[in-house]
Write a structure and sequence with these properties.
By secondary structure, the chain is of the alpha/beta class. It contains 11 helices and 15 strands. Strand 2 (16-22), helix 1 and strand 3 (38-43) form a beta-alpha-beta unit.
């Protein structure tokens, strides 16, 4: 299924956003009724792959047609919100009491990179600040992390050069600082652009390395509980957190669990990974018959709370992230989350 911008144009002006889990005609109507011109959803489930157009006779086509008529753009987060640091997996792990959670299936499409750039001493702080503002220098709960080493740089400016210091045609030796900052690989382009913009040199010398640091992004989470708890107690807490009305528990309710895996959405294919990660139980949004039998036969506890229910918390998370961006950037934009008739996020 596709993610990103599904209906509308990147140049459209947005004055109001409605955040929801599922892409439906009701969600489009709710956005239009409150005069929101953008609908931000998690699931783009009605927009299937493999078709070059949206047929208005299909559910997805009807949603798109209605959105266009109502003047509502549609953006879907999809797996980005599942794997993100602070996304659906982390929200569910926190609700279950999992500490020091790590991805159950780490992302292979990105890595922690290190950007190394050589800067004159008087410009180090401004360059480091620009890189940090673009997303570099974040390690866990710390920001603006860097390492700086002083050294000597050499160069010969050519006739057409416009050197920051030095004389054309003569070998120059200058004091420089080797500035190192980590950076998510998906932010490298933005960080490099910010670094070049803040750097005083005409030509900027820098390197990018792929590090072996574990990534915080991926499907699911696994980690330790503060103390061993029964399957029943974990299920009860997740039931209250998700406002689920149909929690299922596979295993002995009084079995004690210390290491728990969580998977918002479907757990199919995750049972073996959870066991390999040392989990004694896995809490998921949904699980097919094969996953259920696999859990029972392998002796791992399984708690199923519902697909939508496992991802409800994304709605207030979307609202909070957009409000923070709005306040920081000074946008004139109203942001709200969609609720059902019972007042639950949906």
């Amino acid at each position: 299924m596709p993610g990103g911008l599904l209906v509308g144009s990147p140049t459209d002006t947005v004055t109001g956003v409605t955040c929801a889990v599922d892409l439906t005609c009701d969600a489009v109507e709710a956005a239009a009724a409150t005069k929101c011109d953008l609908l931000l959803v998690h699931h783009p489930q009605l927009f299937a792959r493999g078709r070059g157009y949206l047929d208005s006779r299909t559910p997805g086509g009807r949603v798109a047609s209605k959105a266009i008529r109502e003047g509502v753009g549609i953006v879907a987060c999809y797996q980005n919100a599942d794997v993100a640091d602070g996304g659906a997996s982390d929200l569910m792990a926190a609700a279950a009491g999992v500490r020091r959670a790590v991805p159950l299936v780490p992302s292979r499409s990105c890595c922690i990179a290190k950007v190394v750039v050589f800067v004159p001493p008087e410009a180090v702080d401004s360059v480091a600040g620009a890189m940090a503002g673009a997303g570099a220098g974040v390690i866990g709960d710390y920001t603006e992390c860097s390492f700086r080493t002083s050294g000597t740089g050499t160069f010969v400016p050519w006739i057409r050069a416009r050197p920051y210091s030095g004389t054309t045609g003569r070998l120059e030796q200058v004091d420089e600082v080797r500035l190192e900052m980590v950076c998510p690989s998906f932010r490298l382009e933005r960080v490099a652009e910010a670094m070049r913009s803040a750097h005083p040199y005409q030509e900027v010398a820098f390197d990018v390395y792929r590090t072996a640091s574990p990534v915080p992004w991926g499907m699911g989470r696994v980690g330790e509980l503060e103390a061993a708890r029964s399957l029943y107690d974990i299920a009860r807490d997740l039931e209250a957190w998700s406002a689920s009305e149909d929690v299922a528990l596979i295993g002995e309710p009084e079995d004690k669990v210390r290491r728990l895996a969580v998977v918002p959405g479907p757990a199919d294919g995750m049972i073996g990974r959870a066991r390999a990660a040392g989990a004694e139980a896995i809490a998921a949004g949904e699980a097919g018959w094969h996953a259920t039998v696999g859990a029972r036969e392998s002796g791992i506890g399984l708690i199923i709370i519902g697909h939508l229910e496992s991802e409800r918390a994304l709605v207030p998370a979307f609202v909070g992230a957009l409000e923070a961006a709005r306040d920081q950037e000074g946008w004139n934009m109203r942001i709200e989350g969609l609720r059902d008739r019972e007042g639950r996020w949906c």
